[in-house]
Amino acid sequence: MDTPRIGDVAERSKDVTERDIVLFTEITGDRNPLHHDRELAAASRFGGIVVQGGVTSGLLNALVAEQLPGPGSVFLEVRWRFLAPVRPGDRITARAEVTGVRTDKPVTTLATRVSDQEGRTVLDGTAVVWRDPVLTELAGTAGGTTTEGIHP
Question: Most buried pick, 1, 53, 55, 114, via CB within 10 A?
Answer without folding.
Answer: 114
